[in-house]
Amino acid sequence: MTINEALTWAVKKLEEFKIPDAKEEAEFLLTHLLKRKRHELYLNPGLQLTDAEEEDFLSFIERRANREPAQYITGETEFRFLAFKVTRDTLIPRPETELLIDEALEAARSFKDKAITIIDLCTGSGCIAVSAAREFPESIVYATDISKAALVVAEENAKRNGVDGRIMFIEGDLFWPLRDTDFKGAHIIVTNPPYVSESEKESLAPEVRDFEPHAALFGGADGLAVIKRIIKKAPDFLLPGGFLIMEIGWDQADKVKGLFEADGRYEGVKVRKDYGGVERIVVGRKKASV
After folding, report:
1. For 141-167, what is each residue's pLDDT tens digit?
2. So what's the pLDDT on residue 278?
3. Spatial separation of the C-alpha atoms in residues 173 and 70, rounded to whole Å
């Protein structure tokens, strides 16, 4: 099978199973397998795949036709121009989650000291913690997750990206594992918590519903169970003037902003839209007097 024959077959197969953007998906999987750029596929359409390459590509396409996400098939994805390993123990990082780092960069300008302390709750693949450690080279980062398997992946991603010495990965529920550290208070808490409501489960794409870890997706009946716990507890772990930066669901902005304001310990609560115009990030600052 040549590159051209492989692509032609793959696109037809994926279209048959109604996979969106079938051509792009086929190209992505083949470029990963052959370790080539997309344009190289079309510069060498007659190049013959080896038997092993052909077998692997057929397997890739079968898995994608069964709605397994391409990132789990290849075992990696990109986040803020860095390469991250992903497995079915971790969520696949989304582009909108990169906005958490943008907000952290803005928040950091409020502090004179460059050596800031950051907490990443529900770290998953570690994409936020690793990106934060890269963006803030003098920082200390604590990253927690209830999933031991996810933390194994996160630690590998820290090593991949050269920041493993500056992130403390700790297994446990939200803030609880910080009790056993020398933690003194955070300038910034950043989190992409489980926020999908149980009622949304059946409306999710099969790639999400059937493959991504439910513990990292679902936040109770209304999607706010974990969010409420974080908002309530975060001021106990923030330094005065510290920031809580949180990703939320597409219809939760008013409710979450209300939770921040009702708490009474936050000020300057704001909501930021993602690239699609959805209110996606909420930021609150702990009052200096609290």
Report:
1. 999 999 999 999 999 999 999 999 899
2. 95
3. 29
d(CA 103, CA 281): 9
For the chain, the structural domain boundaries read 3-66, 93-286
Low-confidence ranges of the chain (pLDDT < 50): none
């996400």: which residue's tokens?
69
Whether the CB-CB separation of 196 and 204 falls below 8 Å is answered with: yes
CATH 1.10.8 fits 3-66, yes or no: yes
CATH architecture of 93-286: 3-Layer(aba) Sandwich (3.40)
pLDDT at position 179 is: 83
d(Cα 122, Cα 151) in Å, to the nearest integer? 10
φ and ψ at residue 201, rounded to 5 degrees: -55, -50
Task: Give the chain as a 3 state SS string.
Answer: CEHHHHHHHHHHHHHHCCCCCHHHHHHHHHHHHHCCCHHHHHHCCCCECCHHHHHHHHHHHHHHHCCCCHHHHHCEEEECCEEEECCCCCCCCCHHHHHHHHHHHHHHCCCCCCCCEEEEECCCCCHHHHHHHHHCCCCEEEEEECCHHHHHHHHHHHHHCCCHHHEEEEECCCCHHHHHCCCCCEEEEEECCCCECHHHHHHCCHHHHCCCCHHHHECCCCCCHHHHHHHHHHHHCEEEEEEEEEECCCCCHHHHHHHHHHHCCEEEEEEEECCCCCEEEEEEEECCCC
Query: What's residue 182's pLDDT?
Result: 77
Q: What is the pLDDT of residue 4?
A: 94
Which among 101, 71, 100 is positioned nearest to 87, based on CA atoms? 71
Task: Give the count of beta carbons closer than 10 Å to the beta carbon of residue 247.
Answer: 24
Q: What is the amino acid identity at position 39? A: H
